[in-house]
From TrEMBL, chain A:
InterPro entries: Cyt-d_ubiquinol_oxidase_su_1. The chain crosses the membrane at residues 20-44, 56-75, 95-120, 127-148, 191-210, 222-240, 390-415, 422-445, 472-495. It comes from the Bacteria. The lineage of its organism: Bacteria, Pseudomonadati, Pseudomonadota, Alphaproteobacteria, Caulobacterales. PANTHER family: CYTOCHROME BD-I UBIQUINOL OXIDASE SUBUNIT 1, CYTOCHROME D UBIQUINOL OXIDASE. It is a multi-pass membrane protein. The keyword Metal-binding applies. It comes from Brevundimonas terrae. Belongs to the cytochrome ubiquinol oxidase subunit 1 family. This is Cytochrome ubiquinol oxidase subunit I. It is found in: Cell inner membrane. The keyword Amino-acid biosynthesis does not apply.
Automatic annotation (TrEMBL), chain B:
Keywords: Cell membrane, Electron transport, Heme, Iron, Membrane, Metal-binding, Transmembrane, Transmembrane helix, Transport. It comes from Brevundimonas terrae. This is Cytochrome d ubiquinol oxidase subunit II. Belongs to the cytochrome ubiquinol oxidase subunit 2 family. Its main location: membrane. The chain crosses the membrane at residues 12-39, 81-103, 124-145, 165-185, 206-228, 266-288, 300-319, 339-363. It is a multi-pass membrane protein. Pfam families: Cyt_bd_oxida_II. The gene is cydB.
Length: 522, 382
């Protein structure tokens, strides 16, 4: 039987390390492209201020980038370390995008990032710009392949279970790459990263303007951030990944859970603006609804209903019952690989095997499950509704605020009113917001996928390695300490860089030159 | 769908590619690790240390990707190997991981503040981030040669029955020290290519000489223990080289001395250990004669030879089990599906040449020795 304490700790560790990793990645994604924009202006105008601007934000990029790389290693190791049955079960499909990410994207990003920092004097300006562009391209391609992998967990297309190898195997690789869930996720996630970087550049520039320091530098940086941020914040919301929510049972469940929609909504469904979902009585209290909106977003129509949690649980119950049949056929194939009758039967119900495996939480052999256990397992397919409901509202609420922030910034920059004090204070205060939205979005996507590691294929609790509680506590405590120290150092160094300002290097050189020059003057 | 290459051939190619990626890692990131491990001992003042760090400062990041891609390629092409080894060696992997997390931040953060204590802290971070992985990788390879204590259930779920300390036996420690000396030699050779001639290089050559001798001795002792010790496995039944990837369908037994079988069957394989010895000897000569080309060529050849020796001796085994021989993972029973191996091969054939080309270009742009004089004029350096 699976040790649920090990499963819970493994999930805790994965969540902690992934949330931490994802503090650095969005800034890397966005800032890399902002560097390309800033350096392009330098190459076109050849004005030294734009070189200073690029190099200053490049320094911030570098401090942030290494921690993203360092914590990314953990993510790659962890599938094998903590989720070894998952790795065996879906490695045939899931491993490929990770390997392609390394070969196609990460090699490019990591090879050129050194040249980006060290090649200023060794390359002509346009060649250096091209190197910066390749870093940005590599970073963003990296995100594409990671989200192809993640998208497959949400919507496992192009693969089938092979009873001879006891795992999922690829049947259509193009379907894995062009998975609509992955494509939507990619656009949504990188746009969120662009917003994050724009907020950071906007906020730090606003801080300088409030202090009356580095004004020429800050105004220019702010203008770039305003334009880039406005486009990206529109793209995050408009190209949100809700379009994928009609695809699979789990995606439908995710939509129902984040809306806390217990009963199926007749077309066109209304959107719950706010309310208090309760797990005990399976109701949402004091809800305020906006008619039509959900139907439009989720089904892109006015005539299709949006399914509620209760009816999706009924669907899950049927699939669990067929899953038990699949499990039985699989056991007979294992006992005798030549049993053609069992293989024939397995073919008819193979897509429900994962639902049968859900019962392993309650009973060693799913064939011995009682009707009550099947019912319990069916309800287990509902993710944590209040968490989903609130995570979505934080994420979407901040998303809308961001459009307002950058809309205002864009207008002010266009009118050359960079010094509007109330707005500058607002821009500084807004710095933490994109991170809250991004982490809430991650929680939404991954808590919403539960109880599945791979939707309908492999329950999360079966994916864990056969480790001990002591081993897990050791690594969780050490990770927390190590990551905690590094976070403090990183924030300290970024603040130090901001305090020194963009001209520190130049000032140091001038100071040196003037002391060397002094004797001649005297 | 009929694929261009049959399953057996693809499995062989991917076994070879696994070797290529591991060797790529040892040759590139290997000298970064060697330099990192040498840092506190060959360079004493801040200027000396900065000169040493800047021999690898701009390129270590790309080099490390060989390791990341190696890990991801094992995941994609040999998922069961990835699953069993990473979860089985759990705490050892965690140790490597923590050390590897320290490394990038040490490079980047060291130069951000001038205080001596701050810098010395990150110098030791670089040392730990280089020495610990080098040692643990060697110990891990030693354990792979001996077989790991895991068994697979009929669902192919793996259970591991060992502990962290159990990984450290006399033989595996010899493997760990061999790995350290091999990479320290390689790092010393890199410094003689890229570092400034002077007291630092003198110290590096002295340590490099010791490392070359240690490599020769440890490789010989390790080899003798493999040949005459209680080590080795053999497939007893018929093998379907194109069969389904299910380890439980292969009959395997422990057979002391069996790791030498391949050299009788395929005498050409002797090239690998010969290269391991000859490379280290040439590296030693390079240290004595102060020839950067001999030193680096020799240390590279030695790493290629030593790693190939392990792979060829064990073929077709990848990860045997010491407690349940039946569960052993081989080239013929632990790979991805035929289609995945084929697609991934196309990806490698398309992208690896690009990677090699632009990596070469970056090295060319950054060509030239790292000097203490340059530290004063170039504000971008670490």
């Amino acid at each position: 039987m699976v040790d649920l304490a090990v499963v819970d700790l493994s999930r805790l560790q994965f969540a902690l390390t992934a949330l931490y990793h994802f503090l650095f990645v969005p800034l890397t994604l966005g800032l890399s492209f902002m560097l390309v924009i800033m350096e392009s202006i330098y190459v076109m105008t050849r004005r030294p201020i734009w070189r200073t601007i690029t190099r200053f934000w490049g320094t911030i990029f570098g401090i942030n980038f290494v921690l993203g790389v360092a914590t990314g290693l953990t993510m790659e190791f962890q599938f094998g370390m903590n989720w070894s049955y998952y790795s065996h079960y879906v490695g045939d499909i899931f491993g490929a995008p990770l390997a392609i990410e390394g070969l196609m994207a990460f090699f490019m990003e990591a090879t050129f990032v050194g040249l980006m920092f060290f090649g200023w004097d060794k390359l002509k300006p346009h060649a250096h710009l091209f190197v910066t562009f390749l870093v940005a391209l590599g970073t963003n391609l990296s995100a594409l392949w990671i989200l192809v992998a993640n998208g497959w967990m949400q919507n496992p297309v192009g693969a089938a279970f092979n009873p001879d190898t006891m795992r999922m195997e690829v049947t259509d690789f193009m379907a894995v790459i062009f998975n609509p869930v992955a494509q939507a996720k990619f656009v949504h996630t990188v746009s969120a990263g662009y917003v994050c970087a724009a907020v950071v550049v906007l906020g730090i520039s606003a801080f300088y303007l409030l202090k009356g320091k580095h004004r020429g530098f800050a105004k220019r940086s702010m203008t770039v951030a305003a334009a880039f941020g406005l486009l990206s914040s529109l793209s995050v919301v408009v190209l949100g990944d809700e379009s994928g929510y009609a695809l699979t049972d789990n995606q439908k469940m995710k939509l129902a859970a984040l809306e806390a929609m217990w009963h199926t909504e007749e077309a066109p469904a209304g959107l719950t603006l706010i309310g208090f979902p309760s797990l005990e009585d399976r109701k949402t209290h004091a809800e305020i609804k906006i008619p039509y909106v959900l139907g439009l977003i989720a089904t892109r129509s006015v005539d299709r209903p949006v399914e509620g949690i209760l009816s999706l649980v009924a669907v899950a119950e049927d699939r669990i019952e067929r899953g038990v049949v699949a499990y039985d056929a699989l056991e007979r194939i294992k006992a005798n690989p030549q049993d053609m009758e069992a293989r024939g039967q397995f073919e008819t119900v193979r897509n429900d095997l994962g639902y049968g495996l859900l019962l392993k939480r309650y009973v060693e052999d799913p064939r011995l499950a009682t009707p009550e256990q099947i019912k319990e397992a069916a309800w287990f397919t509902v993710p944590n509704v209040p968490v989903m409901f609130w995570a979505f509202r934080f994420m979407a609420g901040i998303g809308v605020l961001m459009i307002g922030l950058f809309g205002t910034a864009f207008v002010l920059c266009t009118l050359r009113k960079h010094d509007t004090k109330w707005f500058l204070m607002l821009a500084v205060a807004a710095i933490p917001l994109p991170w809250i939205a991004i982490e809430a979005g991650w929680i939404l996507a991954e808590v919403g996928r539960q109880p599945w590691a791979v939707e309908g294929v492999l329950p999360t609790f079966l994916g864990a390695s056969s480790l001990t509680v002591a081993q897990l506590w050791t690594t969780i405590v050490c990770f927390t300490l190590l990551y905690g120290v590094l976070a403090v150092v990183e924030v300290g160094l970024i603040l130090r860089t901001i305090k020194k300002g963009p001209f520190a290097e130049q000032e140091a050189r001038e100071a040196e030159a003037s002391t060397e020059g002094e004797p001649a003057v005297v | 769908m009929e694929l261009l290459l049959d399953y057996t051939t693809l499995r062989l190619i991917w076994w070879g590619l696994l070797g290529v990626l591991l060797i790529g890692f040892a040759l590139t990131d290997g000298f970064d690790m060697g330099v990192g491990a040498l840092l506190p001992f060959v360079a004493k003042t801040d200027e000396e240390r900065r000169m040493v760090i800047n021999t690898i400062g701009a390129t270590w990041e790309g080099n490390q990707v060989w390791f990341i891609v190696g890990g991801a390629a094992i995941f994609a092409a040999w998922p069961q190997v990835y699953a069993v080894s990473f979860s089985g060696f759990y705490l050892a992997m965690f140790l490597v991981l923590s050390a590897l997390i320290l490394r990038p931040v040490s490079f980047k953060y060291r130069s951000k503040r001038p205080e001596a204590r701050w810098r010395s802290m990150w110098d030791w971070g670089l040392f730990v981030g280089s020495f610990v992985p080098a040692l643990v990788f060697g110990v891990a390879v030693g354990n792979v040669l001996m077989g790991a204590p895991f068994r697979l259930t009929s669902d192919l779920r793996s259970f591991y029955e060992g502990s962290l300390l159990g990984l450290f036996t006399p033989f595996t420690l010899i493997c760990g020290l061999l790995s350290v000396s091999m990479l320290v030699l390689h790092g010393a050779a890199w410094l003689s290519v890229k570092g400034e001639e002077g007291v630092v290089l003198k110290r590096a050559r002295a340590i490099g000489t010791v490392a070359a001798v240690a490599s020769l001795v440890l490789f010989a002792i390790g080899g003798a223990m493999v040949a005459f010790g209680d080590m080795g496995f053999r497939i007893t039944g018929v093998v379907d080289t194109a069969g389904a990837s299910n380890p439980l369908r292969t009959a395997v037994e422990a057979a002391p001395g069996a790791w030498m079988d391949n050299y009788g069957r395929y005498p050409w394989m002797i090239i690998a250990p010969v290269l391991g010895f000859a490379g280290a000897a040439i590296g030693l000569l390079g240290m004595w004669r102060k020839s950067a080309a001999l030193a680096f060529g020799g240390s590279s050849a030695s790493a290629v030879g030593i790693i190939s020796t392990v792979g060829l001796s064990m073929f077709p085994f990848i990860l045997p089990s010491s407690i349940n021989a039946q569960s052993s993972l081989t080239v013929w029973n632990a790979s991805s599906s035929h289609l995945t191996l084929f697609i991934m091969l196309i990806v490698v054939v398309v992208f690896l040449p690009f990677v090699l080309l632009y990596t070469a270009w970056v090295y060319k742009v950054l060509w030239g020795r790292s000097t203490e004089a340059e530290l004063k004029t170039n504000p971008d350096l670490y």
